[in-house]
Amino acid sequence: MNELKPMVVQDKDTKQVLSLVYCNDESLKLSREKGFLYRYSRQYERVMKKGETSGNVQELVSLASDCDSDAVLATVRQRGGGACHTGGWTCFSEEKGVEWGSLDELIETIRLRRKEKPSGSYVASIVCDADAVGAKLREEANE
C-alpha cells in the first residue's frame, strides 16, 4: 500500500518540531537507504529529497511509526539553513530553539549523582532537599 501518511519532522538537538510533511512507502524506503529525509510533495506529485533545491537537507536520525501506523515521526539533524521553504528555521517559528539535549544531560547527571552518591559531590549532598535542587537547577539553567 502506498498511501500518504503525515510525517512530523523533529530536530534531534533542539527537540523543535520543524515541519509536518507527507510520506509514502517510497519516501520512507529512500530515507532509510540514503540517510536523508525524503518526503512526498503534494504540489509536485512526487517523492523529493528535503532540501533538493535549497540545499537545506535533513540528515535522518530515526523514523518511528505511531501506535496505529498511520503517522510517522522523523527525527533529523537540520543541515544548512532553515527547514521551512520560506527560510524560517521551522514551519512554525523563525527562530532556532534551545538545544534541549543539554537539559537531558543535566537530568542524567543528577540521576547518576543521586544513585551513586559520590564522595564530595555537591549534587549528591543536596538531592534530598527540593529547595536546594530547585536552586541548583536555576543556577545551571542560567549558565
Walk me through this protein's architecture.
With 143 residues, the protein is of the alpha+beta class. The chain has 2 domains: 5-78, Ubiquitin-like (UB roll), CATH 3.10.20.810; 101-142, no CATH class. 31% of the residues lie in helices and 26% in strands. The strands form 2 sheets. It has a 4-stranded mixed sheet with strand order 2-1-6-5, with helices on one face. A two-stranded antiparallel sheet has the order 3-4. β3 (38-41) and β4 (46-49) form a beta hairpin. The N and C termini lie far apart (50 Å).
What's a concise summary of this model?
The chain has 143 residues and is α+β, with helices and mostly antiparallel strands. Helices cover 31% and strands 26% of the residues. A hairpin with a 5-residue loop joins strand 1 and strand 2.
Record the SSE blueprint.
Layout: E1 5-11, E2 17-23, H1 25-34, E3 38-41, E4 46-49, E5 58-65, E6 72-78, H2 101-116, H3 122-126, H4 130-142
Parallel strand pairs: 1-6
Antiparallel strand pairs: 1-2, 3-4, 5-6
Question: Which terms would index this structure?
Answer:
143 residues; two-stranded antiparallel sheet; 31% helix; 2 domains; single chain; four-stranded mixed β-sheet
Q: What is the CA-CA span between the terminal residues?
A: 50 Å
What ranges have pLDDT less than 50 throughout 5 or more consecutive residues? none
How many distinct helices? 4
CATH class of the largest domain: Alpha Beta
Shape: elongated
